Amino acid sequence: MLVNIHHSIYDRIPPQGIYFEGLVQEAFRRVKKPFTVVTRTGLNQPTHDLVVESTRLSLKTETGIGTQARQINITKLCTTEREPWTANLLVERVLNHLMKYDVILMLRSIWGQELLHYQLLDIPVGLLQLIGSAELTVVGRRQGRQSLGADICDQGERLFRVHFDASDGKCSIRNLKLEHCQMLLEWDLQLRSL
After folding, report:
1. pLDDT the model gives residue 46
2. Contact of 103 with 56, CB cutoff 8 Å
3. This prediction's pTM
4. Distances in Å between the alpha carbon of 73 and those of 24, 63, 69, 119, 191?
């Protein structure tokens, strides 16, 4: 497994960002099918990270020490920093951004005493598109442009919270329930002693 190769160099640092993107790209290249075409987009572009055949992938990680086993957080779904900063336009920008993805693949690491528990998830794009029903309200006490947030519910069940941070212009997802995503793979990695 390529994550283990990463840990042979970075013992206690889970792959994230461009390191995770590189691992996913290499994993698809190693698939036995000779027709698998993998294309990487430009770094830090507001679009998908990889195209595998014709499938557009967004790659996300959640690997901090505070990662919870059953609650998913996406610290940056996308950036929405442009003005005007209105609820309708922010939701529209996120929905337009989500249209650029076919699959959102997320690697998570949950820290234990002597090991990292990894989860590889498919986060349904359609689930996040429920942001279209958000009734955003002001959150926090920031002066000037204010942060906005809303709980996203379906049939009375709270699925996750969307948050638009006025200070950095990012849209984040908080407390997405694990059971609403597809678990592709789980495994443990024993940490080497220091």
Report:
1. 58
2. yes
3. 0.85
4. 20, 10, 11, 13, 24
Can you tell me whether residue 89 is helix, strand or coil?
A: helix
Tokens in use for 174?
Answer: 């908080």
188 forms beta bridges with 117
Single-letter code of the amino acid located at 90: L
Of the given ranges (82-86, 103-107, 178-182, 184-188), which has the lowest mean pLDDT? Answer: 82-86
CA 17 to chain centre: 10
Residue type, 163: H
Share the mean pLDDT of the chain. 86
List of E strands, 80-181: 103-111, 115-123, 137-139, 147-154, 157-165, 170-177
Give the pair of three-digit tokens for residue 153.
């519910």
